[in-house]
Amino acid sequence: MIYIYRKPTTTDVFIPNDSCNRRQHKIAAIKYFYSRIKTYKLTPENQQKENSKLQQILVNNKYDVSILNKISSKRKEKQDNQKMKWAKFTHVGTETKFVNKVFKITNVKVTFATGNTIERFLSTQHEEVQNNYKKCDIYQLNCPTCKMKYAGQTGSPFKMRFQEHLRDFKYRNNKSKFVQPLLENRHAIGPMENIMDSIHITNKDRMMDTLEKFYIYREIKSNNQINDKLRVNANAVFETIVHKIHTHATQLS
Length: 253
Prior knowledge:
Elements: H1 23-39, H2 44-60, H3 67-83, E1 85-90, H4 94-103, E2 108-113, H5 118-122, H6 125-132, E3 137-142, E4 149-154, H7 158-170, H8 179-184, H9 192-195, E5 196-201, H10 207-221, H11 236-252
Parallel strand pairs: 1-2
Antiparallel strand pairs: 3-4, 3-5
Helix pairs in contact: 1-2, 4-11
């Protein structure tokens, strides 16, 4: 049988309610005691006994016992939220609102982040251009002859990935999906600075696959995908974003 033991010297004193401390600090101990009751596998009798003891401690430290109801409600709400699936998007304006509408009919909750981080503001544009080719994630290659585009991902630095494409072109190796159409149509290949763009940089994670699919999908919708063999299935989120980008570009022109 499990029960909560207290030493004979226990005073049941923690930060009193009328002290000049932050509210979060005051209720920290209360949350701990309450969580202990719910976490330990106590018998109903010992659970009731410990709950009565906690109420006594609250009264001794000048707290209203109703605070337990609020803690209980927040605890249940947190547990419910942990069961939900969440998707995080960078807030970019109107497009983000349309994405949110798409997810309203699902059981996925949407949260938003911002790209305006301190790190981004402190680094200069020149430093970003110089360092981008040393990073990895989603890149885009542009055929200098027909202006068609190829999107791909890499866990290696962009510069290293470009050298692999260039080597395949030089030795007429058809491993590269970007090089294949160039060789078949006798198109040229240009220097890295002219034909390669780093279109998304982030940490290596499962989002890389999704981002790669989006950029491929975007070029397919524009009939600008260099390799027809690279196909992406219809996607409501992708379609919404592409539509808003096209509408915005039309309005600007």
